[in-house]
């Protein structure tokens, strides 16, 4: 190798060609470049930012005083920022007296296991994750959704299996009813919603989703407490609920999208 | 003696000599109005300066009667009186009078004494009692009512005091020098440099060198103007220098000691440091003067190169000091370079912090904040944090809590930046390369919704859509742009739109394309019509009907700017010839000749005639030439006549050539009569010298001398020619099939460029015309060459 290099230098008059042949040799890169002239990368000392600069415009900063009491101790999964519109797509559930009753039963039973559940005020099946939209995306996204779900027919599904869920960051735990019948229609819907999300490079729905209707929730990951004996008891309550077969059969006739404080509804055929 | 008569004082008590001259009246009126104004009296006196002494004295007396306390009047009066008796004998009674005058003056002026204080001080100085002199001077300076005899201002006196005490620190003991000068520093702010120097000078002279240095340091840290700074700095440098020189002298005299060596080195280092500090100090002065000078702040940072801590401090001070509304220069550049400084040091996180702070600054213009956001984004791009860059620009374009109009200066820029095209276009760029189709489209749509788009944005948008094969969407974008802009801004959009539309559909959507063209041409200014018409015609040619294409060209020739009409006709004729054949171009030519300017019509005629000629339609061609000749002044359009001549040589006969020449003359005559009549009158005399010329063309007398000379030369040449031996009388019978050479000979003889030949034709028509034959042709070459030479002369 050394020889090859010398050869290269020896015939410098040859110009490019010799240089090319020089490069043709399998010379290790570090051999060519480890010259003492090259500056050794000294760690540059870190320079401070003066406090007085850091303290500038403190008052103007958008105070994200996440007063957790305002939303029942929930923790934001993404920070609030101006121009961000939290958005999700779901199937809304009509509220029935009996269902509320069932919810109360479940909440009170869970209390026996030292889990203080908060009752959900409305019921739905999520078809997307919570995503962040820019304001100017809302309309095109809604438009796209409308076009994609327009061809879907109304359908039924049943949900009678009690299950415990946590959110992505395990900051909340939910007790819900898993969909047993109607799964395939839901999957089809999700795949359309996912396409819309992809159009904006937004996260798609979970892989192999377990569709469910959440009935109650609590802060933190309390899966351990709720699984097992407790879950079994909750399931018994549901199974034993009067007319449950009829009650836990849901009909879907519209899809909704919520973006910030805006609601959009897409009726099914 | 007149003096004797007037000197009895009290003004003009009915003295018979008292009378006013005409010019005096205005002065008299003035003093009547303001009898107690010294100025008025002085003015009167000045005016009367050269009047006889008794008149002058009288005015002084009158003035002093009104103003007996005026020192100025008395002073001048007494001076005047003394001058009047200057060369007289002491016994002259005039002296007595003047003495009386002085006595009287003393009666009134008994209170005026301090002016002598200056003399006294001067005296004290001269006998070297400086301490006392300084004391006196100080009391004078402090006395506000003091009036200087020498007309010095309070500042001047004060400055004298300064000089006195600072230069003689050893002798002036009873005054607190430092306090006095410092007092001056607050009082005379326009002389700070000088005063600081005096103060330092005092300490130097009293041997307090360290104190002097302190004074200098204080001075250069506080002065506000470059002038003061330079004064102090130069004096400071001089001081240090002389200190070093003195030190060196003493060491060389007393021999070296180690201690001295160190001391000297210290002094040298100090001096050196002072000199290197100069730019920075000067910069400080400028910033003290105007702390909102962005440029000076940048300069300061540069001066601190290699000293990061100082740079940070400078930036920190700068961004906190400069008020964007008072700033000269762009405030945001300070923030940008501040962030860049951290970025260059590999501290992206800190650079981000700076940018975040910068986005909250209350800038003067929206554009500044927009720049800030863009720079922030650019930084992230430099470090390949593409998502971060996208996030930043998305944040920049978010709708603020309170929406405000872009130009509403009463709102902070943060509430207006969401309408800045700058941030939006950068976001559009980023979305195009980093985002999705939909997110990019959303951005462009948003830009359009905000009504901040430019034609370029529209075109970019449409091209972007086209790239993603959304052709109809792309056309929709153009349509939107067209509805947003008016002519001429909409031109680029139309141009791109139409081109793209044809590229896409060709002839498939002909009706729609036609509609578009009609829409585009509706209201299109002349200036922009050409391209669109050409596109339109091209469309019709390629995909539509030739007839339509011709109609479009026809319309185009009328719709474009007059300067482009000729070109348009050329294209029209060319296309018509290609599509329908040349015969179809006749009507176009006719139209063109009718419409175009003379110059272009002439071109058209020649080409028209040429075409007819090629078609073998000699008569038509000739008719065209003949028609065209009406707009061809032979003096300026030689080429046309040459062309016609060539044509006749090829296709004509003697008659036709003669006819051509006849036309030429008549055209010439037409043009001649149009020449300024006055000019012809004026030159009549001179033109008589060359009678033939004026006979031939009286209007031509408007020509200059050179032309006249030329003509005379030609005349001579013609005469010479006439003297030549005559050839046999051969009648040249020229038919249309006459040989070329014969025709050439004929025409050369009738060379339209040579006026003399025409003259000859006038004079000796017959002989000339019959003359030429082969032999003579050769001979004739000579004279024509001679003419040519003369002509070019």
From TrEMBL, chain A:
The active site is at residues 124, 212. It is an enzyme of class 3 (hydrolase). Keywords: Hydrolase, Lyase, Nuclease, Nucleus. It catalyses: a 3'-end uridylyl-uridine-RNA = a 3'-end 2',3'-cyclophospho-uridine-RNA + uridine; a 3'-end uridylyl-adenosine-RNA = a 3'-end 2',3'-cyclophospho-uridine-RNA + adenosine. InterPro entries: Cyclic_Pdiesterase, Usb1. One of its GO terms (biological process) is U6 snRNA 3'-end processing. It is found in: Nucleus. Gene3D superfamilies: Cyclic phosphodiesterase (3.90.1140.10). GO terms for cellular component: intercellular bridge; nucleoplasm. The keyword Signal does not apply. GO terms for molecular function: lyase activity; poly(U)-specific exoribonuclease activity, producing 3' uridine cyclic phosphate ends. It comes from the Eukaryota. Its main location: nucleus. The keyword Metal-binding does not apply. 3'-5' RNA exonuclease that trims the 3' end of oligo(U) and oligo(A) tracts of the pre-U6 small nuclear RNA (snRNA) molecule, leading to the formation of a mature U6 snRNA 3' end-terminated with a 2',3'-cyclic phosphate. Participates in the U6 snRNA 3' end processing that prevents U6 snRNA degradation. In addition also removes uridines from the 3' end of U6atac snRNA and possibly the vault RNA VTRNA1-1. Belongs to the 2H phosphoesterase superfamily. USB1 family. This is U6 snRNA phosphodiesterase. The lineage of its organism: Eukaryota, Metazoa, Chordata, Craniata, Vertebrata.
């Amino acid at each position: 190798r050394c020889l090859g290099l010398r050869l290269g230098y020896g015939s410098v008059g040859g110009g490019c060609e010799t240089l090319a042949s020089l490069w043709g040799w399998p010379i290790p890169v570090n051999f060519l470049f480890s010259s003492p002239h090259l500056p050794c990368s000294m760690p540059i000392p870190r320079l401070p930012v003066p406090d007085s600069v850091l303290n500038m415009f403190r008052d103007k900063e958008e105070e994200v005083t996440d007063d957790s009491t305002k939303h029942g101790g929930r923790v934001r999964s993404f920070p609030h920022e101006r121009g961000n519109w939290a958005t999700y797509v779901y199937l809304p559930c009509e509220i029935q007296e009996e269902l509320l009753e069932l919810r109360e039963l479940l909440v009170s039973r869970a209390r026996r296991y030292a889990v203080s559940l908060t009752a959900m005020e409305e019921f739905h099946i999520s078809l997307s994750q919570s995503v962040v939209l820019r304001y100017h995306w809302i309309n095109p996204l809604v438009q796209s959704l409308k076009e994609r779900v327009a061809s879907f027919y109304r359908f039924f599904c049943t949900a009678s299996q009690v299950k415990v869920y946590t959110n992505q960051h395990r900051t909340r735990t939910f007790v819900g009813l898993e969909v047993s019948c109607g799964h395939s229609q839901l999957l089809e819907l999700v795949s359309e919603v996912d396409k819309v999300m992809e159009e904006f490079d937004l996260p798609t729905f979970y892989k192999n989703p377990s569709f469910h209707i959440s009935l109650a929730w609590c802060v933190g990951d309390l899966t351990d407490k709720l699984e097992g004996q407790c879950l079994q008891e909750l399931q018994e309550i549901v199974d034993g609920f009067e007319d449950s077969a009829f009650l836990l059969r849901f009909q879907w006739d519209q899809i909704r999208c919520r973006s910030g404080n805006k609601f959009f509804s897409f009726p099914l055929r | 003696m007149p003096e004797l008569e007037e000197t009895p004082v009290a003004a003009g008590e009915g003295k018979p000599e008292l009378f006013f001259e005409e010019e005096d009246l205005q002065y008299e009126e003035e003093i009547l109005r303001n009898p107690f104004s010294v100025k008025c009296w002085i003015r009167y006196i000045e005016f009367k300066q050269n009047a006889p002494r008794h008149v002058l004295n009288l005015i002084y007396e009158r003035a002093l009667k009104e103003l007996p306390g005026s020192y100025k009047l008395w002073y001048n009066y007494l001076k005047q009186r003394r001058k009047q008796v200057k060369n007289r004998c002491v016994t002259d009674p005039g002296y007595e009078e003047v003495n009386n005058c002085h006595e009287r003056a003393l009666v009134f002026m008994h209170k005026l004494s301090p002016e002598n204080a200056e003399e006294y001080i001067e005296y004290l100085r001269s006998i070297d009692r400086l301490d006392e002199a300084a004391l006196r001077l100080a009391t004078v300076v402090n006395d506000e009512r003091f009036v200087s005899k020498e007309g010095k201002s309070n500042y001047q006196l004060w400055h004298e005091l300064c000089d006195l005490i600072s230069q003689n620190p050893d002798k002036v003991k009873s005054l607190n020098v430092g306090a006095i000068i410092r007092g001056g520093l607050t009082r005379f702010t326009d002389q700070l440099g000088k005063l600081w120097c005096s103060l330092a000078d005092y300490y130097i002279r009293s041997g307090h060198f360290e104190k002097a240095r302190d004074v200098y340091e204080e001075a250069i840290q506080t002065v506000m103007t470059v002038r003061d700074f330079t004064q102090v700095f130069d004096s400071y440098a001089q001081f240090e220098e002389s200190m070093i020189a003195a030190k060196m002298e003493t060491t060389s005299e007393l021999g070296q000691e180690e201690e001295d060596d160190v001391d000297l080195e210290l002094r040298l280092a100090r001096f050196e440091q002072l000199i290197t500090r100069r730019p920075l100090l000067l910069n400080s002065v400028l910033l003290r003067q105007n702390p909102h000078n962005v440029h000076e702040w940048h300069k300061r940072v540069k001066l601190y190169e290699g000293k990061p801590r100082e740079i940070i401090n400078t930036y920190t001070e700068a961004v906190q000091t400069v008020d964007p509304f008072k700033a000269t220069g762009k405030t945001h550049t300070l923030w940008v370079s501040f962030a860049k400084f951290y970025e260059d040091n590999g501290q992206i996180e800190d650079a981000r912090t700076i940018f975040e702070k910068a986005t909250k600054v209350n800038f003067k213009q929206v554009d500044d904040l927009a720049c800030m956001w863009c720079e922030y984004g650019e930084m992230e791009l430099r470090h390949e944090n593409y998502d971060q860059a996208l996030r930043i620009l998305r944040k920049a374009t978010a709708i603020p809590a309170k929406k405000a109009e872009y130009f509403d200066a009463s709102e902070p820029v943060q509430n207006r930046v969401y309408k800045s095209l700058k941030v939006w276009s950068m976001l559009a760029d980023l979305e195009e390369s980093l985002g999705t189709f939909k997110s990019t489209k959303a951005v462009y749509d948003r830009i359009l919704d905000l009504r901040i788009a430019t034609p370029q944005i529209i075109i970019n948008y449409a091209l972007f859509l086209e790239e993603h094969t959304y052709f109809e969407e792309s056309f929709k974008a153009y349509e939107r742009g067209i509805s947003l802009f008016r002519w001429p801004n909409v031109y680029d959009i139309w141009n791109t739109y139409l081109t793209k539309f044809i590229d896409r559909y060709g002839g498939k959507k002909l009706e729609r394309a036609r509609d578009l063209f009609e829409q585009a041409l509706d209201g299109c200014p002349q200036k922009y019509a050409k391209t669109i018409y050409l596109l339109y015609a091209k469309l019709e040619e390629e995909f539509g009907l030739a007839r339509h294409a011709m109609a479009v060209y026809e319309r185009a020739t009328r719709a474009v700017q007059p300067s482009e009409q000729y070109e348009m006709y050329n294209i029209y004729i060319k296309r018509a010839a290609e599509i329908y054949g040349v015969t179809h171009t006749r009507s176009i030519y006719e139209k063109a000749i009718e419409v175009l300017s003379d110059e272009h019509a002439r071109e058209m005629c020649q080409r028209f005639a040429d075409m007819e000629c090629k078609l073998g339609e000699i008569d038509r061609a000739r008719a065209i030439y003949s028609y065209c000749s009406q707009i061809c002044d032979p003096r300026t359009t030689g080429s046309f006549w040459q062309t016609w001549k060539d044509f006749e040589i090829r296709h004509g006969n003697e008659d036709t050539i003669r006819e051509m020449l006849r036309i030429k003359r008549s055209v010439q005559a037409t043009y001649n009569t149009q020449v300024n009549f006055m000019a012809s009158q004026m030159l009549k005399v001179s033109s008589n010298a060359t009678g033939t010329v004026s006979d031939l063309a009286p209007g031509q007398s408007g020509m200059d001398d050179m032309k006249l000379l030329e003509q005379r030369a030609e005349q001579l040449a013609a005469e010479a020619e006439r003297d030549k031996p005559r050839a046999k009388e051969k009648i040249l019978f020229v038919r249309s099939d006459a040989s070329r050479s014969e025709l050439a000979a004929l025409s050369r003889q009738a060379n339209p460029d040579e006026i003399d030949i025409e003259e000859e034709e006038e004079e000796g028509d017959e002989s000339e015309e019959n003359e030429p034959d082969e032999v003579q042709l050769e001979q004739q070459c000579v004279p024509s060459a001679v003419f040519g030479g003369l002509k070019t002369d």
